[in-house]
Structures are given as structure tokens and as C-alpha cells.
Write a structure and sequence with these properties.
The protein is built from 23 helices and 20 strands. It is an alpha+beta fold.
Length: about 750
């Protein structure tokens, strides 16, 4: 009998050989869990440097293997497994019986290192339930195995409800020790990236990575996936480690750069901003589905130190990819996926929560068409001369060159910048204590009624209506604080700033004010007689969801740092002191949240930053969210709210501020703590209407303490009294104007 032997094609032989090699590798090189690896090394008294030297690798690699951030590859994997096997025989786990002749159970392949056993998995959330948004430790163990990917799904509500984004909103793209491009995602998940070019990386993100974030409003849009490119990733994909001075000034790579050409050849497109620190690369939409990827390049200045980092001790330049993913992923989960600077993201958050348009079905045709939402900013409107900055095109030819507009020509609603000399009695106090209003700009937006449509001019001495947001030309120079009764008492007006000017000086004649400022004059009991006004007749609480989103993000992050809303005064102060040492990454998240609130309000009146000549339109003017009247209303509310509490504090305890810088207030005090001067009732509670210590937006925290002698020395060195409010800081990294 003749037996035919059918030859296996060469490509099949190669595949079979690769599979056999893989099976052999799995059988020969099992590894225990990352935590067990570290235990074994420490039990043997070995340092990471010693193990790295024996395996001819870097100490950082050993640390990554022990934390689960990466896995060793052949041939080092076999040697590492041999070392751990030998150590496991000599140093068995405390609850395990010695087994000198067998491989310990920790080395079995029943589950990948980062995946819990079925028994541990059954009653609880999967392994990645170490939710980055609530964790105060480092990232959880990770793996690039499919099983680990499944276990690492984030317990974020949007991710759980939408499988399109199961791997989170963003990823940090890096190159590991073995030269493999990897993507660190939130929750400790690490993905292998097969893309060899940047266009291929974009396509991989759009088709396989499952990155992105579900819309925050049912009429809104899903957030584009964000890829953060490390320095190693820049080199791998042919991008420069840093921009040249010319490229920095332009904010982008030149059109002739090879990567820009690659993008064009691949059929992808860039926005008009080009390829810069924050770049959008996109393909034409498929129906209603966007196909866009945002690239964030920290090495080019995408994450400014004054917004995202600690300028006195920068952490981001040396932060591991997994930690950076946790940091930005936590911010994305609590606020939104970053869209650029914190200011840009703050503005984008407004429109994400109040989308201008929606799809509406035409009953006659059955087709859907675009419709406007009544509670949103939907279109560009005419601007008002008094509300715009000096360089606005509408002011061209209105004033002589270098003319400084007066309060009667310009709406000057700005934060406080005020100080005064100390009285003789105040000089006898030993301390000056600075308190700081939490999230002052966000708190002022809470419940604030703003205009949603264009301005209507009122002339002929219109009657003031506090329900109409806008700008009023009115004389408030007659308001005398010494005539105001607060809880049946009068106050010393000379030791308080005026509520109507940023400098705290009493106004001298007619001036433009936002509605909250004029309403406060009425609240104090004075008559007001506007000369004219520009008001908005369609109104709403446009900023309410924006405030609530940022409030929840702030309070949740503070709770992770150990500061909660149910603490008493001293408990709160002690917890705040401890919070700075709890988790540096979460402290950066907190700073970014505060910068988002402040920057978002500032963006409502973004000025010309040199993009175009004076009196020429700049890009921000094309946004429906360029609304200087809304910014003015928020800042007026900040100032009025602070003044109201200063008045009640003065009436309750006869204590007065000596300096105010934005939202920091300095008081003379007999002791170094805010509790030494803030008024309390007989039962120990804060006096009604006064400043109150606490974590919620609008409440205050301790900013710092100095002696009165220190202040006198400062005044002597500078030749007179000046604003010391923001020099009194216990934490020098704290930002001004939260």
C-alpha cells in the first residue's frame, strides 16, 4: 500500500512553529502575581538593582514587573521565572505549606496575574474596580492579555452603559522597555499598539481601541478619544521632541513636515489649527458618527504647569504613563475629556452640558432637522460698547489713541484688589490670617440668572429690574455703608471696601454695573435711578449644570484626599493640612478642576492675544459663547457675595478685613487659626451669614498665616501699604482666584 504524504505549506509550518513556541513558553515560564514577585524579592533581601543587574535589564523594568505595569519578554522572562521559582521554594507565602519539590500554586496559569480567581471575582466588582476616579493609591495591576483587558473594565457609569468606550476616555501612548508601543488606559489596563505610523495610530484608535466618552447631555456629542504621546512615542512616530522657536510661535508644525504629509496621504485631515500641542486628526464622518482623534503632546506644552502641574515641583515630566493615564482619566471621569487647556475645557463643558442644538422631527415630512435649545447660547448677537474690551472692532475710531476708558464708558466688573492700613488696635494683634473662598467663580455661577439672547437698550431713566440681566448705567456714589443696618448694628465703613469697584474705592459718579451689583445696592436699602441700560429679555440659569458638575468633581476629589463635607471647623483644618500629603496625583486633579472653573469663566470674554492687530476681529469673537456680559455677572456675584459676608462678619464680631486679592481675604487675628477670629454663636456654630469653614464651594479654607510684624516689614520694604493677600500662603502652590 502506498501512503501519500501531503506536505504542509511553508506558511502553515511557520504558524504551527510559532504556536508551538508560544505553548512551550507558557508551559516553561509561568509567573506569579506582581505582588508576589515583590514579596519574594523582599523576602530574599534583594534590591531591584541586584535583580536588574543579574537579568541585564534596568531597575525601572523590575519595578514595572512588580507593579504589573508591564510584563517581561523572552529571553528575560525565562530567567526571571527561574529566579522567582527558586525564591518561592525558599520563601513560601506565610499561609502556604513549604513545597520544595513542586512549583508553588502562585505559578499556575489558571489566570493572568492581574485577574482575580473566580472565587474572589464572584461577589465583587472585577479587578479594575480599583476605580481611578476614587483611588488614592497607584494604578492597579495591569496586563496586555485579553483576559486582563476584560477584567479591567472601568466601573464608570458611561463606560458600563456604552461598550464603544469600554477602555476609557483616553490613553497614554508610550514605548516599553522591549521597544513595544503600548497604550496605558485608565484602571491599569495596558494595550499593545500595532500601529507603525501616526496615521495608522489614528485608524487603530478609531477602529480597535474602544476609547472615548459618552455625551454628557442627550442632545450633545460623544467626546473624541484622546491619545497622550510621551517623548518616546514622539520619537517612534517621527515627531520632534520639542518645537523650534518658530514652531512655538506658530503653534504648529510646518505644513511640509513628513508626519503632516503622511496624514494627508492617508486620507486624514487636520483642523485649521494644524499639528500642534493639541491636535485633532479626523476622517470624514460615517453618517452621524464622528471619526476624530485628539492628540495631546505634553512635551510641546499641552499641559501647562500653572494649570495641570506643580510649578515648584513639576511631576508630569517624569510621571509614568500609567500614572499619567490615571491622572487625566480621573479628571475626564469627573469633569470631561480634556479638550485643550483647562480654560478651553471649562468653556467646552458649558456647551457639553447645554448643547445649542438638537434633532427635531418634522411632523409633515418625517425627517429630522436642526432645532435650537431654549436654555442654551445658540447664536451670535450684537455686542454692547460698554461690555467689550478696548481692542474690540466696535470701538475703532470711538476714542483718542491711548484713551483710558472710564467707569462711565466701560463695564468694570472685576474681582477685588484692595488693601488698607492697619489701625492702631489691629497693629496690637499678633497675626494676620488669610482665608480663601473655595471655587469662588463656580460658586458665584450657582443659581445665577444670565441673558441668553441679544441686548435690548433701555433709555429715558428706566426702572431697575433685578430679573433682567445686563448692564446698567447708574450713579451709586450715594451708597454709604455706615448707614446700613446689619442685624440691628452699624459697621465701620472706613474699614470696609466699597462693593461697587474692584479697588474698593467709593464710586464718584455714574458708572456701568452688572445687574447683581445694582441689586446689591437695593438690598442694602438704597434707591437706584438708572440712566440707561442694555438688558437681555430671554433669561435662564445657563451655568447651573456646569457648576454642579464642577462642584461634584471638587467635593469628590477632596473626599478622596480625606476632606469631607460633614467635618467641624477644627476637623476640617486638620484634614486640609493632611490632604497635601495624601496623593500627589489627586492633588493635581484638584488643581486642574479649580483651574477649569476659573478659566472657563475667563473664556467668556477671551481677549485678543496678539493674533491680529488692534481693532481687528480675533477668532474668539466667532463663538456663541463669547459673552462678556455673563462673565461680568459672575464676577459681580463673586464680589457682592464676599462683601455681604464681610458686612455680617463685621457686625457679628467687630472684625474687618485689611486686604483682599481676588478671593483671598486677610483678617487681623489674636491667634494663627481662622477659628480665632471667625464669629460663632453661643453653641459654637458659625454666625449666620458669615464666612464658614468647609469644603463646599463658597465656603472658606485657611490659606495662610503671617505676623503683623511681617506685614509692617513688607510695607517698609515697598515704601507703603500694598496688597499682601496673596503673599500669605501656607501652600505656595495654591492658585490665585479659585
Amino acid at each position: 500500500m502506498v501512503v501519500e504524504v501531503t506536505s504542509v505549506p511553508n506558511d502553515e509550518e511557520a504558524l504551527f512553529g510559532a504556536v508551538d513556541a508560544l505553548l512551550e513558553q507558557v508551559a516553561q515560564d509561568p509567573l506569579p502575581s506582581p505582588a508576589e514577585r515583590k514579596r519574594l524579592r523582599e523576602a530574599a533581601g534583594l534590591s531591584q538593582d541586584q535583580v536588574a543587574k543579574a537579568l541585564q535589564t534596568r531597575r525601572e523594568s523590575i519595578g514595572n514587573w512588580e507593579s504589573g505595569r508591564s510584563e517581561p519578554r523572552p529571553p528575560k522572562r525565562a530567567a526571571y521565572a527561574r529566579l522567582l521559582e527558586g525564591l518561592a521554594v525558599r520563601f513560601p507565602a506565610p499561609d502556604a505549606a513549604p513545597a520544595p519539590a513542586a512549583v508553588p500554586e502562585a505559578f499556575t496559569r489558571s489566570a493572568p496575574p492581574s485577574v482575580p480567581t473566580p472565587a474572589a471575582e464572584a461577589p465583587a466588582t472585577p479587578a479594575a474596580a480599583v476605580r481611578p476616579a476614587a483611588s488614592t493609591t497607584g494604578p492597579s495591576a495591569s496586563s496586555r492579555r485579553p483576559e486582563a483587558k476584560k477584567a479591567a473594565k472601568r466601573p464608570v457609569a458611561t463606560a458600563a452603559a456604552d461598550g464603544r468606550f469600554e477602555n476609557g476616555p483616553l490613553a497614554v501612548v508610550d514605548v516599553d522597555d522591549d521597544g513595544q508601543v503600548v497604550a496605558f488606559c485608565v484602571g491599569g489596563l495596558v494595550l499593545d499598539v500595532p500601529a507603525k505610523t501616526l496615521p495608522a495610530l489614528v485608524d487603530w484608535t478609531l477602529t480597535e481601541a474602544k476609547l472615548g466618552q459618552a455625551r454628557l447631555h442627550r442632545h450633545g456629542k460623544d467626546a473624541d478619544p484622546v491619545l497622550v504621546l510621551t517623548s518616546a512615542a514622539l520619537e517612534r512616530y517621527g515627531l520632534p521632541a520639542e518645537l523650534t522657536p518658530e514652531e512655538r510661535r506658530a503653534g504648529r508644525l510646518p505644513a511640509g513636515h513628513k508626519v503632516v504629509k503622511q496624514i494627508a496621504r492617508a486620507g486624514q485631515q487636520l483642523t485649521q489649527r494644524g499639528f500642534g500641542a493639541w491636535t485633532r486628526v479626523y476622517r470624514e464622518p460615517e453618517g452621524s458618527r464622528r471619526r476624530c482623534v485628539q492628540l495631546c503632546i505634553p512635551a510641546w506644552g499641552a499641559l501647562p504647569v500653572d494649570e495641570w502641574d506643580n510649578k515648584n515641583d513639576p511631576q508630569l515630566p517624569t510621571m509614568h504613563g500609567a500614572d499619567l493615564a490615571r491622572f487625566l482619566g480621573t479628571y475626564a471621569d469627573r469633569v470631561m475629556t480634556p479638550r485643550g487647556t483647562t480654560a478651553v475645557t471649562g468653556l467646552e463643558l458649558m456647551t457639553a452640558l447645554r448643547p445649542p442644538t438638537r434633532a427635531e422631527k418634522d411632523e409633515a415630512t418625517g425627517e429630522f432637522r436642526q432645532a435650537f435649545n431654549d436654555d442654551a447660547l445658540t447664536r451670535l448677537y450684537d455686542v454692547v460698547e460698554c461690555e467689550v474690551p478696548d481692542e474690540h472692532p466696535i470701538l475703532k475710531g470711538k476714542f483718542a489713541r491711548h484713551h483710558m476708558r472710564t467707569p462711565a464708558e466701560m463695564l468694570m466688573e472685576e474681582p477685588y484688589n484692595w488693601c488698607r492700613p492697619l489701625t492702631d488696635d489691629e497693629c496690637m494683634q499678633p497675626y494676620l490670617v488669610a482665608i480663601d473662598v473655595n471655587m469662588a467663580f463656580a460658586a458665584a455661577a450657582n443659581g445665577l440668572t444670565v441673558g441668553l439672547n441679544g441686548p435690548t437698550r433701555l433709555t429715558g431713566n428706566p426702572k431697575f429690574d433685578p430679573a433682567l440681566p445686563g448692564s446698567w448705567l447708574v450713579d451709586l456714589s450715594h451708597v454709604d455703608l455706615s448707614r446700613v443696618q446689619v442685624a440691628g448694628r452699624t459697621v465701620d465703613a472706613h474699614r470696609l471696601p466699597s462693593p461697587f469697584t474692584p479697588t474698593g474705592e467709593r464710586p464718584e459718579g455714574p458708572a456701568w454695573y452688572a445687574t447683581p451689583t445694582v441689586a446689591y445696592a437695593v438690598e442694602l436699602g438704597f434707591d437706584v435711578a438708572p440712566i440707561e441700560a442694555y438688558v437681555r429679555t430671554q433669561t435662564g440659569r445657563y451655568l447651573d449644570p456646569w457648576y454642579k458638575r464642577l462642584r461634584d468633581a471638587y467635593v469628590t476629589t477632596m473626599a478622596d484626599l480625606g476632606v469631607t463635607t460633614d467635618m467641624s471647623g477644627q476637623e476640617f483644618l486638620d484634614a486640609m493640612a493632611r490632604s497635601k500629603r495624601v496623593d500627589p496625583a489627586l492633588s493635581l486633579v484638584l488643581k486642574a478642576i479649580k483651574a477649569t472653573a476659573k478659566g472657563g469663566i475667563g473664556k467668556l470674554r477671551q481677549r485678543n492675544r496678539g493674533q491680529v492687530p488692534y481693532y481687528e476681529p480675533w477668532p474668539a469673537l466667532e463663538r456663541t459663547t463669547w459673552r462678556p456680559d455673563i462673565r461680568a455677572a459672575v464676577l459681580a456675584s463673586v464680589r457682592v457675595s464676599m462683601h455681604r459676608k464681610m458686612m455680617k462678619t463685621a457686625a457679628a464680631a467687630d472684625v474687618y478685613p485689611v486686604a483682599i486679592g481676588t478671593d483671598a481675604i486677610v483678617y487681623p487675628s489674636p491667634g494663627p487659626s481662622p477659628l480665632d477670629f471667625l464669629p460663632h454663636t453661643a453653641d459654637g456654630k458659625p454666625a449666620p451669614g458669615t464666612f464658614r469653614l468647609g469644603v463646599s464651594p463658597g465656603m472658606v479654607k485657611h490659606q495662610g498665616t503671617q505676623t503683623v510684624l511681617w506685614a509692617e516689614q513688607q510695607f517698609e520694604e515697598h515704601g507703603g501699604v500694598f496688597n499682601i493677600a496673596n503673599l500669605i500662603k501656607t501652600d505656595q502652590t495654591a492658585g490665585e482666584g479659585e
